[in-house]
Amino acid sequence: APVHRIAVIPGDGIGTEVMPEGLRVLEAAASRFGLDLRFETFDFACWPYYERHGAMLPPDWQDLLGGFDAIYFGAVGWPEKIPDHVSLWGSLLQFRRAFDQYVNLRPARLMPGVRSPLVRADGTPYAPGEIDMLIVRENTEGEYCSIGGRMFEGTERELVVQETVMTRHGVDRVLRFAFERARRRRGRLTSATKSNGIAITMPYWDERVRAMAAGYPDVAVDQYHIDILTAHFVQRPDRFDVVVASNLFGDILSDLAPACTGTIGIAPSANLNPERRFPSLFEPVHGSAPDIAGRGIANPIGQIWSGALMLDFLGHRDAHDAIVRAIEAALAPGSGAPRTPDLGGRAGTADLGRAIAEAL
Amino acid sequence: APVHRIAVIPGDGIGTEVMPEGLRVLEAAASRFGLDLRFETFDFACWPYYERHGAMLPPDWQDLLGGFDAIYFGAVGWPEKIPDHVSLWGSLLQFRRAFDQYVNLRPARLMPGVRSPLVRADGTPYAPGEIDMLIVRENTEGEYCSIGGRMFEGTERELVVQETVMTRHGVDRVLRFAFERARRRRGRLTSATKSNGIAITMPYWDERVRAMAAGYPDVAVDQYHIDILTAHFVQRPDRFDVVVASNLFGDILSDLAPACTGTIGIAPSANLNPERRFPSLFEPVHGSAPDIAGRGIANPIGQIWSGALMLDFLGHRDAHDAIVRAIEAALAPGSGAPRTPDLGGRAGTADLGRAIAEAL
Ligand SMILES: CC(C)[C@H](C(=O)O)[C@@H](O)C(=O)O
Ligand SMILES: CC(C)[C@H](C(=O)O)[C@@H](O)C(=O)O
What we know:
Two copies of one chain form a homodimer.
Chain A: E1 3-11, H1 15-33, E2 36-41, H2 47-53, H3 61-66, E3 70-75, H4 84-89, H5 92-98, E4 103-109, E5 132-138, E6 148-151, E7 159-167, H6 168-184, E8 188-193, H7 201-213, E9 220-225, H8 226-235, E10 242-245, H9 247-260, E11 268-272, E12 280-284, H10 301-313, H11 317-331, H12 349-359
Parallel strand pairs in A: 1-2, 1-3, 3-12, 5-10, 8-9, 8-10
Antiparallel strand pairs in A: 4-5, 4-11, 6-7, 11-12
Helix pairs in contact in A: 1-10, 1-11, 1-12, 6-7, 8-9, 10-11, 11-12
Bound molecules: 3-isopropylmalic acid (IPM) (2 copies).
């Protein structure tokens, strides 16, 4: 079996609690499918490291991590101690940029045993699997450019400006990825912009969508403004398949979509460098959750599901599918599997992690 | 009674169909409350005008409209004939800027007889009035700045840039308005930014919120990132009171919030110049709806409700309340009032408009 070298970064808060469960399930998958996963753990990208070193990362972090096939990440951030824009721009957002992880991939799927807060127009609930979208987010440019600054500081005339930058290179490659995925799924692609209001960058994105669509006659394309699209997510979430958007709009939609499936606490996320020139990064959508950290009650499914996405990316579709099935089996009503408090039970993080590993 | 001079601009599509019903209800309110409303209708800001004149507005539109107390607006846009960024930037967005309508106000309230697509965590529906938010959107600067451009056009190196500009003047005045409203409502204010990702402009907005909050110790302030806030709208919409946000984020939230109350087709919107140096503008949230235009089946409630906001702004709170009660009475299950197709009935625009006018 090919060797897969994986850098493990638990990070802050519940990141350190859910990571062992993610690893437990990956080990179980490795033994069932005969995979050779080699883990190495790093203690940076967290507040305790910052406290000791005055930085989120060691100076040679790119060398340390660059040779791995993947980074398995927990969560970062501890706002009481260190502002988010320092901790995140000093770690996670560095990884995304330096390792050119230009696709952020976030599946949102209504799982069995998880309640969606949405009902159909006739008042009936959606069935498991009926809401099933894949959000494809541009992950390196767009609205997240730190170009700009402040003027007339501290006076009544004070102002701030910040650039959004979109490049053809950056837009086309994420669109191509999204079209390819749509082709392999249900053949529908929805693009979110705001061209009627943000009238320079957003029409450009639309233009590139139309150009790319010409090469994918088999994919049905819809273009929406982000405002009305959020309304449609709530009104007709079952109508969407692949949804592609800029860095900011993808960020918003990839929290809203899991919220629509009731799964924001268990949603996974993949930050991909599809060409594999650099390691890709896999992390739960949830953050470090300081409010429940240290109590051993965090739901580990986001971390475990992210591990499944990692195995898929490393070429093991069968192992991915088996983990997702094990998660579904644990969540299914009447499964008897332990449930963490967010799922209405009293079990701990490790109880649920063990149950999923055993189901494998 | 003081004279109120009102410019009426029906605009495109269903704008021309719902406007007569809005006027009908305003006339009814005027006679009941002894108001002196003087209407003058203008035929610009629509595709037919553009077709004849090659522009959305006459050159002297600022003089023509500047002396009115308010503008009562239908809808603009006809994408098949003219791109949105031309029709909107050539009319509606001009009004907002030139008349310094820096507050966009959008109530979202669960009305009787209207189904919310959301249910509570225990699966039960929300009751009318239980979801009741007021979105306060900055309406003149922020992400909607047309500063920027394109480089290396038509080549592989092509890129676009666009500025976001926030001024202390612009941010503080809309925040002050929102804090004042929160004080008069339930005393809660939620601010939406994205400071962990958009790390120059958004932290500035947060900073101004904190500065303003110091002067409103009686208002409870929450600051959220926009991504997780959209998730909370879906999960706990009853927890929000006043929500204040930048131009773009306010735009998104003020479609999402009505969607959460099932009322996107009937939601109203006020574009205010609170100091009354310029006319304020009142319009339904819905657009010109080319797909149903010309059939006389559009729901006129958004237009009527916007008229109520106009009377409130002109100093007639009692007339506002009476119109909202008449809308609620018509919507209430078993009211016997005619229902348009979007509400599950077969009535026409005028039937529903007449019913509401009569209920007054
Ligand atoms: C039409 C468009 C430019 C406008 C906006 O984004 O302001 C609309 O969505 C609105 O919310 O009034
Ligand atoms: C923490 C924050 C900067 C980040 C983002 O917006 O990218 C997060 O919300 C995410 O979606 O991964």
